[in-house]
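Lesson 9: reading folded outputs for more than one chain in a single document. The general rule is that every protein is listed as its sequence immediately followed by its C-alpha cells, and records are never interleaved. Here is the first one.
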Amino acid sequence: MLSVANLSIEYQNKTVVDGLNLELAQGEIFALLGDSGSGKSSTLRFIAGLDNTKQGSVELDGVRLSEHGQHIVAPESREVGMVFQDYALFPHMSVFKNVSFGINHLPKSDQKKRVSELLSMVGLQGTEGKYPHQLSGGEQQRVSLIRALAPAPKILLMDEPFSSLDVNHRQQLTLQVRQILKETNTTSILVTHDRDEANTLADRVGKIKHKQLTLI
C-alpha cells in the first residue's frame, strides 16, 4: 500500500534522516518513535505532500506521489488523512460540519449517513449540533479522527494525537483507535514519543535513531 524509499531530511542545514525506507501493507498500523528533532513529523509531512525533502520518493497504492524529494501529486489529491496533536477542528463549525468537511461534495443524505455511522463508531452519536468547545479533549480527538476517516483515505497519518490527554483517556482512546483502524482496514502511521502507546496501537514499531529507521 505504501512505499517510502531513500528518504533524507535536513533540518537547519543538518541531516536528521538519511536513507529511510519503509513499506506498509494494506491495513497495517505502523508506529514511528524517535527523539525530538529526529525527523518523525517531517517524515509524515513528506508523505502527506506538505514538505519537500533532500531526497526520497513516496508511492501509495501503486501511484508515485513524490520523487527526488519533490512532490508530483498535490496534498489534497493524495487520499491521505491526517490527525494532529492539537485536534485542528474548526471552532466555528458544528461537529457535523467538521466531520463532513472532506465529503461536502456528496449529496446531503449521503453526508448525513456517513457522519452518523462514524459518530456511532466512536460513541458520539447525538453530538452533531455541538461545537468543539462543548466537547472534552478526548471527544474532540475522536471527532478529529473520524473527520480524517470520513473521505475513506488510503492512509491515515497521526502526529502524536494523544499527547495532550491524561493517561487514562490516552490509554482508552489508543485501544479504541486501533479497533476502528482495524474495522475499517485503514493503513496508518502513528508518530509518538510513548513506547507503550506505540506497542498498544501498532502492528510494527520503528525508531529513528542516528538518522536511520530501525524496527524494534
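And here is the second record, again sequence then C-alpha cells.
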Amino acid sequence: MSEKEQPRLASALAQKVVDTIAPTINRHVNIMNAHGIIIASSDASRVGTLHEGSVQVIRRNEIIRVTQADESAGTQPGVNLPLRLNDQLCGVVGVTGAPHEVEPLADLIALTVQLLFAQEREHSHSARKAAEARDIISALLAGHVAAEVIERTLETHGLRAPWQLELWIPRSEQDPELEQPALDGIRTAWVGLFGAHWRLRKAGGEAVDAPKANDRYLVGPEASDAGELLAQAEVLRTLVARPALLPQHGHQAIWNQDIAVAVARAPARSLKYLALKAQVLNQEQAKTLLVVVAASSMSEAAESLHIHRNTLVQRLERIGQVTGVEIRQAAESLRLQHAVYARIALDELRIF
C-alpha cells in the first residue's frame, strides 16, 4: 500500500482489539469503518450495521460525546472518537458509559488499533517483499528465464539498473544480518537457495553490513542489463556447487574468479587428475604461489607474506624444483594454479 492510499482497517484486527479490551473494561465497545459501518463489536449482532453516531463523527472529524440516552434513536451515553491511521480518518471507536469516564478508554482503544495496524502492515509488507525477493532470485538462478522477463520483473519491483548480485554463506543460519529487510528500490531481502543466501541490490548500495572474517561472501560486478545479470548468476551458482572455492571475506585479494569457475565446472571425476601437479605442494607453498601471481611485484608479495624478499625467491625456486614447473612461464604457472584450486575444491588445502 502506498502512502497516498486510504488505509483500510481490517475487521479481524478490529475484532481482536474489542475481544481483548471489552471484557477488561466491562464496557460495550464498537469499532466502525470510514463509512460508519460497525466492523467489530462486543455485541456480535451489531456487526455489519450502520452506527448513526459515527456518521456524525466522520462528517465533522471530531469527538462526539453523548451524555443522555435516547431510546427512540437507539443511542446510549458514551463517546465516539475519530480513528486515524497514517494521519487519515479511517473509522470511529465507540465506548458506552459516562463520557468523562470512558473517553480515556476510547483513546486507549484507538491507540491500540493504531499500533496493531502499524505492526500488521509492516509484517504484511515484509512478507510480500520476501516473496518478491524469492521470485526474483529464483528466476535469476534458474537460468532459463528470458532476459526481457527478468528486466520487466525488476522494473515492476522498482529495482532499476545497474544491479549487483550478492552471495553469502554465513557461519550461522541464525546470523541477525540475514533478517535485514528489503528496501524499496535499493535491495531485496536475503533469500536462501542452493545452500547459500542471495540478495540483489542496486549497484553502489551497501553490501552486507558486517561479513564475518570466516564467512564466504562475494558480490558480482555491476550489471547494466538483465543479460549480464543472468551471466553473473550462472557464475555464482557454479561456484556455490563447490563452496570451498569461494573466498572468505578479507581473503579475496589472492583469489582468481576465472580459475575458480573453471575448476568448479570440471567434472568431479576430473578434479583428482587436475590436482596432481600440485600434489607435492604444502599449504605454505601453495599460498605463496597464489600470493605471488596476484601481487604487482615480488616486494609486494614478500610484504604480504611477511617474509624477506630473498626468502620468497627461495620458496619459488623450491616450488619449481618439487613440481617441475617453470614458475616464470605464464602457461605453466597457470596450469599449476589450476592444480592448486583443484586441491582446494577437494578440501585438501584451505588458503582463502
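What the second record shows: The chain has a mean pLDDT of 88.
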